[in-house]
Structure formats: structure tokens, C-alpha cells
Sequence to fold (229 residues):
Amino acid sequence: DIQMTQSPSSLSASVGDRVTITCRASQSITNSLNWYQHKAGKAPKLLIYVSSTLQSGVPSRFSGSGSGTDFTLTISSLQPEDFATYYCQQSHSTPFTFGGGTKVEIK
Amino acid sequence: EVQLVESGGGLVQPGGSLRLSCAGSGFNFRSYWMSWVRQAPGKGLEWVANIRQDGNEKNYVDSGKGRFTISRDNANSAVYLQMNSLRVEDTGVYYCVRDVQDYWIGRYFDNWGQGTLVTVSS
Fold:
């Protein structure tokens, strides 16, 4: 199985900050990497798919990059509604696996 | 608007069984793979199983093999997860997910239901 390692597991940031979350796969997954936002009590939301493609309706302050084993999610200017937990997920092969999550909290 | 509505969760004793259902609407259900993803209390997301459009290919997380069975009814736009021999560690919120597989673009989960809570406890 492909292991996905996210870092950091949590971070504190202020509105307007630039935030970067990293995700590393245990083997190459080419660009088969997706990012989701999850708020407590709500359904997870797709943000970015195949490493860098922004899902329709997602603000352009979100961006993704990377290929092979190393990937990044960047929020260029953190907004109040962005405080949530973020997960990466590999779709290269089953079992599809998620990173452990990064909880973004208000500083 | 795409909608996925889960049902069938509840409290069950260890060793018991439960069948989750998911009703899809607002899209051509028979054209999509479907998945189940779960979240244990205080933990992250875990993919559980998926099923191909025609129902003839199914995949499972290792911990679910031999205990869980995914199935679908395209005529009624529904997908199911039969869970047997349930364990305490199967406790969590189970999400029904539309599983997009595009040969040219890639694969991702683009629509999620609100989830149904499964509690395995004596």
C-alpha cells in the first residue's frame, strides 16, 4: 500500500498569511494526488485534483503543485473560512490512501 | 445539483451486521464509480471500498476484505455497503462518494454525502 505523509499535522496562522502544506508519497504516484478540505460536521470538499487542477468553484487562492512523491498545497492569503483540516489523497492505486491531515487553526 | 444521501447507520454490537445505503441524484449515476470513505472519531479519512459502473469490479481496504461487500443498483441510483463481523474499530462516520475516473484527466472524489454514523459497541 502507498503511504501518504502530511506535514505539519497542525499549524496556527493569521488571516492573510500564506500557508503551505506538504504531502509525501512512499513511492511515485506521478500526478495522482488530490487535496480535500474538511470542516467538522460537514462533508469533505474537493479542492485540487491531479496535483494542480483547481476544482470548479474553489477560490484561486488555493493552488497545488508537485509530482512523483512530493506535493504541496498552498493558500496564498488565508481567509476566515479556510480554517479547517486538509487532507491529501493518492488515486494512483487501490487502496486509495489519505494523509493524516493538517489542521489549520487561528493564531 | 449532485446529491448523495446516506442512511442505515446506527448502534450495533461487535460481531453484528449493518447495511448502509446511499441514494444518488442529480447526475447520471450509472456512469460513475462509487466509493465509501470513513472517518473514525478523532481520526483522519480512510477509503473503504469502491465499485465500477457495471458492478463487476470492486476493491476494498485490507481491513474490510471478507467482511464488507459493496454493491449497486443502477436502476435506482443506489450504492450499498454490507458490513458483517463488525469490530469496535469500524466505528465512525461513513461517507458515500462519487468516484470520478477519467482516463485523460485522472481520478478523484468530487462529491460527498453528509455521512452516516456507525457505532460498534457493547
Remarks:
- The first strand of chain A starts at residue 4 and ends at 7.
- The CA atoms of residues 25 and 105 of chain A lie 25 Å apart.
- Chain A has no helices and eleven strands.
